[in-house]
Amino acid sequence: MRIDPLRDIGSRLLDVEKPARYLVGDYGAKIKEGEGLYTLAICFPDLYEIGMSNNAIRILYDGLNRIEGLRCERVFAPAVDFERLLGELGLPLYTLETGIALCDVDMLGFSVGYELSATNMLAVLASGKIALSAVERGEGDPIVIAGGPAISNPHPFAEFLDAAFIGEAEQGFYGLAAELAAMKAAGARRKDFLERLSREPAIWMPVREGSGGKRALRAVYGGFTGEIYKTATPLPTLKVVQDHGTVEIMRGCPNGCRFCHAGFYYRPQRIKSFAAIGAEVEHLVREGGHREITLSSLSSGDYPCLPELLSWLSGLWSRHRVSFQLPSLKVNSFTLPLLSQLAEVRKSGLT
């Protein structure tokens, strides 16, 4: 089932706040058409303007759409007013690329950054006309999977998930998705897909009747240092919460703070090369039109040679009025020269 919001919802869109959240066709969206494609809907379970600010969703979207025989389309949690409108019209929640009803996709994948979005996951399932309880799903229903740091303990989600991917998707999930796409082309059924998931080391599966469940081994991506992510598109149709480009300059953190879940989840520390950072910045400026770039990590002040990196990037891009921001700085990790470099083009931000 395909939903065209202008055709199927029409003027009723004016009854909801920010109807642009629910229109299909963002500029730069990757649209694949064809018979037999494995359809994966990727969801950040929050509002559009929050989900489109999430760099992980952009990385996954680009990586998955590079796989032959697979299309990855986005969906976000509906606000209460739109959720109610879909119910009144008897329509399911749909993807933003081509309007595929969620109940018709092959896999619905949640990227969960924080536990408070758990109820939003249920809202997405209900609005997409997918059974909340995994045991009620059968042939023809999507496989519901989740990943991200808030899924490192998947047990509270066991009733709703078919599986969880523990760790970093670049290490294993892309290859797994490619296999699932090939299996669909060969005529595999839902139970065949679940059986293949059960053999993936990073996949956790809950205990079900007749099944003892499956433990997972966290996936850690070894190629981060030289990886160049292409996250400039799709461009949002309305102003998002963090309206700037993001380059992940370091993954993991050397500090080991006992209160910090992410510091342990993303171990070990990995440093992105100057060359890869430079290529990502150029992509965001040239393809996405960004003039503010965040150099992101769990603790950016621990990036080796950070002043040299900022000096190099400013030398390349200051004449184009491109500025850089640094999040996650410790008090003892920034200096007056560093602050001066950040303010070279415009007043910039640090946290």
- Our count of helices gives 11
Read across the widest sheet, the strand sequence of neighbours is 2-1-3-4-5-6
Biggest sheet details: 6 strands, mixed
Output the CATH class name of the largest domain.
Alpha Beta
From the N-terminal CA to the C-terminal CA, the straight-line distance is 45 Å
CATH architecture of the largest domain: 3-Layer(aba) Sandwich
Number of domains as seen in the coordinates: 2
**Order of H and E elements:** HEHHEHEHEEHHEEEHEHEHEH
Morphology call: globular
Beta-strand content bin: 5-15%
Question: What is the β-strand count?
Answer: 11
Helix content: 25-40%
The poorly predicted ranges are none
Mean pLDDT: 92
Over all CA atoms, what is the radius of gyration?
A: 21 Å
What is the CATH T-level topology of the largest domain?
Rossmann fold
